[in-house]
Amino acid sequence: MDSMDFNELFNLLQNCDETDRIEAKAALYGLGRSFLETVCALSNEPDLGGGYILLGIIKNEEPSEFKYKIIGIAEPDKLQNEIASQCRQCFNIPIRPTLKVISHSQGNILLAYIQEANAHEKPVYIKSKGMDEGAYRRIGSTDQICTRED
């Protein structure tokens, strides 16, 4: 895993919101389509160096000093297996995330570090969508579908 730990990442999330390198996802009912898009975008973005997905954290919709709150994940082992399997099977190249379960008083969080793909492996894309519809880039805090120029 790259040099940032959970506390640094969570503080950045609270102070700066989601960024080009940090994404928060609830993962209450599994990973969902947007997880794969974020993995793809973090893998593809040139010179980003990859990024982090924090699962078990949601944007706080209630008035509070905190932008995000920890809701935790119910089955960390099952979620890790799902992530590892999808990252291996759903892309044109296998993605090997670094996964770490963080025990917190408000629930377990799963921290996934997605490394940037090597230049010769890009573009990374979701196989079921094909290259034209399944390749994403990380632009700010968003996952954007690649254009032909990308």
Descriptive report:
The relative contact order is 0.22. The chain has helices at residues 6-16, 33-44, 76-89, 130-134; strands at residues 22-25, 51-55, 57-59, 68-70, 98-102, 109-114, 136-139, 142-145. A four-stranded mixed sheet has the order 1-2-6-5, with helices on both faces. It has a two-stranded antiparallel ribbon with strand order 3-4. The protein contains four helices and eight strands. The model has no long low-confidence stretch (mean pLDDT 92). The protein is an alpha+beta fold and 150 residues long.
Which key phrases capture this entry?
4-stranded mixed sheet, alpha+beta, 28% helix, 4 helices, 150 residues
Radius of gyration: 15 Å
For the largest beta-sheet, the strand count, sense and barrel status come to:
4 strands, mixed
Separation of termini? 27 Å
- The shape is globular
- Helical stretch count? 4
- Quick check: average pLDDT? 92
Number of strands: 8
Residue windows where pLDDT falls under 50 for at least 5 positions? none
Q: Can you write the helix and strand succession as a string?
A: HEHEEEHEEHEE
> How helix-rich are the residues, as a percent range?
25-40%
Percent strand: 15-25%
Strand order of the largest sheet: 1-2-6-5
Structural class: alpha+beta
